[in-house]
Amino acid sequence: MNIKIAPSILASDFSRLGEEVKNLEACGADLIHCDVMDGNFVPPITFGAQMVKAIRPHTRLPLDCHLMVLHPETHIEDFAEAGADIVTVHAEACDISALFKQISSFGMKKGAVVNPETPVERVFSAVEEGADMLLLMSVHPGWGGQKFIPETLKKIECLRDFCVKHGVPELDIEVDGGITVENVKEAIAAGANVIVAGNAIFKSGSIAETIARLRG
Ligand code: DX5
Ligand code: ZN
Fold first, then answer.
1. CB distance 46 to 69 below 8 Å
2. What is the residue range of 87's domain?
3. What would the pLDDT profile of 145-183 be if each residue is shown by its tens digit?
4. Whose CA is nearest to atom 9 of ligand 1?
5. How far is the CA of 49 from the centre of ligand 2 (A)?
6. N or C: which end of the chain has fewer CB within 10 A?
7. Are the beta carbons of 45 and 38 closer than 8 angstroms?
């Protein structure tokens, strides 16, 4: 499968976000992962559609917007206007089916995500609803730099198996949280093909080398 690397700008220098995304593109990233947090669905507040709009002119890469927010339906239009390419919404926060219709109506790609404690079965219906991506959290959402939760591997395997059996064997399965150049191999072997990494990329000596190593 085609492995795609999605650096999370949560770990980048917010005072120079434009340069950071430009550099990620030059270093071989495939997507820019934007962690939107509202202080309600998760305790921290990061940024919203206005920030996504600000970085849009600095890269041609798809902006992969992970909405860790309550009532995501109130923000979809803003993300469309900001130039988001993929919008991923939490099964714990909304009715996936309704949100997918809304996201599609703005011509964006749609993703569904579940937290570590939420059964993987909760995103099965998203496959039938035409999801462009499925995301499994491998840490509790809210913070970068946490340890990968190993039980996620079983969920990835189960989801890839479901996709294969439902005629979409190549559907993008993204894994998010605690990924390192060491444990990425297990995530890929389990069936993930879109790899989010924040600290592993930004705290490394070389962004380009780390992106290449994460690709395996
Ligand atoms: C956590 C975010 C992740 C986070 C990953 O809520 O969704 O995208 O930035 O950061 P690392 O790779 O440092 O665990
Ligand atoms: Zn994320």
1. no
2. 4-214
3. 999 999 999 999 999 999 999 999 999 999 999 999 999
4. 144
5. 15
6. C
7. yes
33 Cα: distance to centroid of ligand 2 (angstroms): 6
Render pLDDT for 16-30 as a digit per residue (tens, 0 to 9). 999 999 999 999 999
Whole-prediction pTM value? 0.98
Pocket-testing residue among 88, 196, 207, 211, ligand 1, by greatest number of atoms within 8 A of Cβ: 196
Residues with CB under 5 A from ligand 2 (ion): 35, 66, 176
Q: Return the ligand number nearest the Cα of 8.
A: 1
Residue type, 39: G
Residue 126, domain CATH: 3.20.20.70
Tally of domains within the chain: 1
Give the number of other CB atoms < 10 A from CB of residue 149. 17
pLDDT digits (tens, 9 = 90+) for 22-52: 999 999 999 999 999 999 999 999 999 999 9
